[in-house]
Amino acid sequence: MAIVKPFRGLRPPKELVELVQSRPYDVLDSEEARAEAGDNEMSLYHIIKPEIDFPVGTSEYDERVYAKAAENFAKFQKEGWLVQDKMDMYYIYAQTMNGKTQYGLVVAACVTDYLCGFIKKHELTRRDKEEDRMRHVRVNDANLEPVFFAYPDNANLDAIVARYVQGEPEYDFVAPGDGFRHQLWLIKDMEDVDAITYEFARIHYLYIADGHHRSAAAALVGAEKAKQDPNHIGREEYNYFMAVCFPASQLTILDYNRVIRDLNGLTPEQLLDALSVNFNVEAKGTEPYRPQKKHEFGMYLSGTWYCLELKPGLCDDSDPVASLDVSISSKLILDEILDIKDLRSSKRIDFVGGLRGLNELSRRVDSGEMQMALALYPVTMQEIMDIADSGNIMPPKATWFEPKLRSGLVVHKLS
Which of the listed CATH numbers 2.60.40, 1.25.40, 3.30.1760, 2.60.120 matches domain 256-377? Predict the structure, then answer.
């Protein structure tokens, strides 16, 4: 069962939300954050990317940077840029991209559920990134940014959400940059709050869609606080961390594509010959070719797009990891032909999220920066859940969720 609870969120006043809100800390670098914040002292970047308050080049891991985050967080509360709600509640967070809206419930998820595996993950985490986020949670005593969960569709939760979103939202704005619409509603009625808690308790597992390092950090700090508290009883706020939970069927996963710097000493003709061993190779012309189905790839090479279709019998579709197109392309193209063994560390490969479009792949090859590009068919949410259920891990750079959650709409304090 999934244990969730309502909480007293810390939020911007309605008239300030567009000044406070930001992109997540991990989708932009320090200089991009500095540019986006500009002279806006209310930007959440001053808390989640506080190195922008120091001279250019200051490490985001500098001890002074973490201290500055806590100082700025206190300032936001003192100035009334973040104000705590007076009662526990749930929140509905809606995102609209390209005419499609997904509706998530903002909840306090249970640390124990994460530690015991009732909150399932599909990616490995790095200890250095975990420790960075742990330090951030510790100094602020809060979850400044939510993690992104999926849950199996639930008609009763859908009905509650549908009823609320007929009313006026608390927040409603179009974010700069991505142009996506973001809305927030408050669920204060105790009957509805109890119903949401009950319905989640009937769901066996929650799945991390995005935010594995934030999830790990939040849970580890919560467990740390429990050990340090001599009066711990299990109901303290630090036993929970903030998540936005979406029905799995509503989520959009975009293609996560690859661009490669060299052909491992092969000529384009030799590469095509090598590919033809495992793939049916068909030239498609100069217009970008988007894969139409699983086990089909688009490739851009020397000004031409190709369709690469995996030959029959080369994949065990009963294996949830080996049958992924990211696994197939990594093994049969990147590893066996191009000698790219480790996607996490190789400098010969880069990755392009599907929001950038296939023209971005053509551009990077045509510029001479890269020699070839691979366009992949997107992973499905069902594949992610199947892999998480099996206890396996997705290959690196397999999923790209859009739209990203905006930060600063709700903050969860741990005490």
Answer: 3.30.1760
